[in-house]
Amino acid sequence: MTNNVLNGYQFKNGLTVKNRIVMSPMTTMTSFYNGMVTSDEVNYYAARAGGPGMIITGVANVTALGKGFEGELSVASDDMIPGLARVASAIHQNGTKAILQIFHAGRKSTRKVLRGAQPVSASAIAASYPADSDTPRAMTEAEIETTITAFGEATTRAIKAGFDGVELHGANTYLLQQFFSPNANQRTDQ
User: Fold this and answer.
1) pTM of this structure
2) Per-residue pLDDT tens for 97-111?
3) CATH of 15-180, one of 3.40.50.300, 3.40.190.10, 3.20.20.70, 3.30.1360.120
């Protein structure tokens, strides 16, 4: 059998996709201000489901303080599960697997997006882009532990909503990447 993109694939954990085509995450900015799912969001995924073996959603914040922009999904509380279940169900048409991308914006958010709250990051260093970035507050060790827990709780909510997996968004200079970069992380603690 040839290694054709239209052939199925089985991951080591047993998950099987019907083909090797994956729709990468794309930002739609169609959720409500609080991250709850709208019908537009559900319809967007429903229109694309069925063909790809897997669809990865646009980002969903794992905490309210992790919100990066208006109109993004949230998986920060159990209140989000019913709407996210609608998205997962829409993606599952004709055997497509549904993956929820989760993240925390860290210093890439703004006080405006966070309704007056100061963004947080590994260290109190503003992002170089955009030029008018807010200077974040360095997270305490307890806040870091709470955020790690929030990623786990978000994963549990994604499973409860019917998603087949999650993808950690560690690019685009969001919080996970901020901890790896000396441009954002100058901590000396653990």
Assistant:
1) 0.95
2) 999 999 999 999 999
3) 3.20.20.70
